[in-house]
Amino acid sequence: MLFESIIYLGGAYVRDMKKLLLLLPTALGLSMPAHAPLAAETAAGSDSLEEVVVTAERRAEDPQTMPVSVIALSAKALKDSGVSNIADLQSLVPSLSYVDAGNVKFINIRGVGLNEGAPNQTDGVANYLDGAYIAREFTTDDSYFDLDSVEVLRGPQGTYVGQNSTGGAIFINTKKPSLKGMDGYVEQTFGNFNYRHTEAAVNLPVSDTLAFRTAVLAETRDSFTHNYGPLGFAAQTPVTNHPGNMNRFVGRIQLLYQPTDALTVHLLYQNSVRRNDGTPYQPINAQTLANPYSANYDFPEAYNNSYQRTTATVDWKASPDFKVHVVSSYQAMNQLTQWDSDATSPFVSPTTAQGGTIIPLHDWYSTNEVDLISTTASKLQWTVGATTLDYHQPFTDQIISYNTPKAPSLTPDYSSGLFLNFHTLRKNYAAFGEVSYDITPQWEVKVGARYNHDTVGLQSGSYLIPFGGPTGPVHVPAGPNIPSYTAGTGRVVVNYKPTKNQLVYLNVSRGYKPGGWTPDIGGPPTGNNVYNAEYVMNYELGWKATTFDDHLRTAADVFHMDYQGFQATVATDPRNPTTSVTKNVSGTKIQGVEAQLDAIDGGFHASFGFTYLDAKFGNLLIFEPANVFGPGNPAAPTQINLNGRTIDYAPKLSGNVALAYEFALRGGATLTPRLQWTYQGGQWTSFFDAPQQYMPAYALGSARITYVPGKAWQVEGYVTNIAGRVYLTETTGNAPALQVGQFGAPRQYGVTVHYSF
Asked: Which residues neighbour 134 within 8 Å (Cβ) at sequence distance 6 or greater?
């Protein structure tokens, strides 16, 4: 009865909202079709909801029949919502939190993923591009363009993804070449802040068996923040370094070779170049809150990132009973980040200790996967596979300190401060398999397992130079130390279909993320600095339904996760809380509720989603730094237990609502207004729970109106952050007076012209 009541209430909600929107056309003088579907959201020739195919589990599946919490978004749905990167994606995926900290990207789902930038820590949310694993988070903020879909799986994915999926997984699928004919598009956007966004793609069949697809994107934008320079007034020599600006180019070329129906070869090469002026951190105080987009940096900032990625995929129908799926990928990246860590200057803030950080790094890695997948219509289905990863990252990290009692100079001294020279590496070998069996037409059982073997650590030759002492710089060895980890993960699922269009599932899954080793920056490394792996046991009960002739789709789940070994970097010396080493938290608990609704009725379309999270740390004794809550609070480092504190990057509430209606105009043209609202709950950025380490909740509204005069052209106007709300997207600091953070984007508006051929 509960499920049927939810369906009824959802249908009533859709009908009532439709009545409200139907008042709009009379005021605008527009005609309304009896059944005019949103073309971007529906199947061709019907007003039923669009079918989005999910391939995350190596088969083409309907997300409504998958026993996992999944949000699948088509390329058109992403465009209609204005989602162009992972930062925007969190507005459509409750439970997903993304925080851009410059050289590190904190991606978490259900509060699980990555909460700090320790050298050996790995992501807990696995990202994939065209089925190939992206080994580090450095390139996950690239632009979404010329895509087929994006799939977000919430909760540990211990079978098909395995290691580094304790929080979930994100699959980005590009638009593939087609043998059916030449087509493509050109799109241009003009917006405020001198925003210019150009993208284009063309599909070119060469023969009946060979096709190419090429896509490019160019994007520039002025910074939202104006840097007045170290003297702090506009009349001085103009400053050209304005952190937060955008200058990016991405090119992609793909080849499809299909000599027979049984064999498909797909090759992808992608090159991305980004040259920006760094990350716009600000000191958070009354002055900047009154004028949040002005800054006074005295240390030059930069964020330059370029990478080249090659992926090869082979699908071969080896026999009537199974197919072979092979994916191999190689990526090489260069990145330079440097930032003014105090976000001000000694001339504007004479009492503030000044600092800067410079991190050049280079990484390269290869991934490989081979799968055998059953293809018969039997009640028994199976998949077996094996994967490898070989990852290397040499980098240096130079932390410069000045305008302090030990370094009284007002200008940066590049020969002083902490210096790290590390070569981190990670290798993984895994084998997995899953079988499913239809016991009856209503009942199905799935059992999957994965064996993981990881080595993670620092290579020989790694060293650090601590902050200068009385005898000058001293090289401290920091390697080699490469611990190994093995773990079994997987899932057991029971599916029940009470009706043809309903699914009730119970999913018990286990996720794993390897441990590692970090040197104690406050002194020489010790063997005790090895930290253990993370394990997440997820117990999830879910329900999905497709009703009213595919006009309404609903999904809801409740989950409880036992999280063992949460990796947290803490101070090890109570006399020196700047010492840092990664330890494991035991007994962490996360539980919550997720729900989503997607509905269509004629030209009206509505979507809704929300998540409630209760995410609490388990036991770990740490030292809370002196003065973290202000002068003398506490007066000295104080031992505390993390037990009961809220996990970092785990908003208690998050959600979104979108409403749209397609109006019919003369000559077959359409006009579609769309309203969106998203809410992101407050988040801590550190387990100390100090006020300067808290990002308050915020809600943002946006509007779009799309005019389609015919099949080829489309014009769209948009405005985001309609209310011009000032909000934080990152914050940190060792004391309230030292709080620095980033403000979110102000109101933006513009127009996009799209031409398809």
From this structure: 126, 127, 128, 140, 331
Helix, strand or coil, per DSSP, at residue 92: coil
Q: How many domains are contained in the chain?
A: 1
The letter for the amino acid at 521 is: I
CA distance 596 to 605: 14
What does DSSP assign to residue 690? -
- Strand 653-661 versus strand 604-616 pairing type: antiparallel
pTM, full prediction:
0.91
The Cα–Cα gap between 219 and 498 comes to: 49
Judge contact between 599 and 576, C-beta under 8 A.
no
Indicate which CATH number applies to the domain containing 646.
2.40.170.20
Full domain range(s) for residue 709: 2-756
Q: Please give the Cα distance from 29 to 375 (Å, whole number).
A: 54
How would you classify residue 635: left for phi > 0, otherwise alpha for psi between -120 and 50, otherwise beta?
A: alpha
Two tokens at 224? 């939202």
State how beta strands 168-174 and 125-129 pair.
parallel
271 pLDDT band (50/70/90 cuts)?
Answer: very high
> What amino acid occupies position 174?
T
User: Residue 87 corresponds to which tokens in the numbers above?
Assistant: 């930062």
Residues forming a β-bridge with 61: 54
Return the structure tokens found at 496. 């029940």
Split at pLDDT 50, 70, 90, the class of 749 is: very high
Q: CA-based angle 41:677:718, to the nearest 5?
A: 70
Please, is 320 exposed, middle or buried when counting C-beta atoms within 10 Å of its C-beta (0-12, 13-18, 19+)?
exposed
Distance CA 321, CA 503 (A): 27
Please provide residue 12's backbone torsions phi and psi, each rounded to the nearest 5 degrees: -65, -40
In 3D space, the residue among 485, 482, 365, 356 whose CA is nearest the CA of residue 419 turns out to be 356
Cα distance between residue 393 and residue 261, in whole Å: 41
| C-alpha dist (Å) from residue 475 to 166, 469, 517, 683 | 36, 12, 19, 38
Task: Tell me which residue has tokens 């590496």.
Answer: 425
d(C-alpha 97, C-alpha 651), whole Å: 8
Over the chain, what is the mean pLDDT? 88
Task: Report pLDDT digits (tens) over 177-212.
Answer: 999 999 999 999 999 999 999 999 999 999 999 999
Q: Which of 658, 539, 571, 549 is nearest to 610 (CA)?
A: 658
Strand 105-109 vs strand 112-113: parallel, antiparallel, or unpaired? Answer: antiparallel
What DSSP character marks residue 461? T
What are 382's two structure tokens? 């199976």
CA angle 378, 381, 385 (to 5 degrees): 150
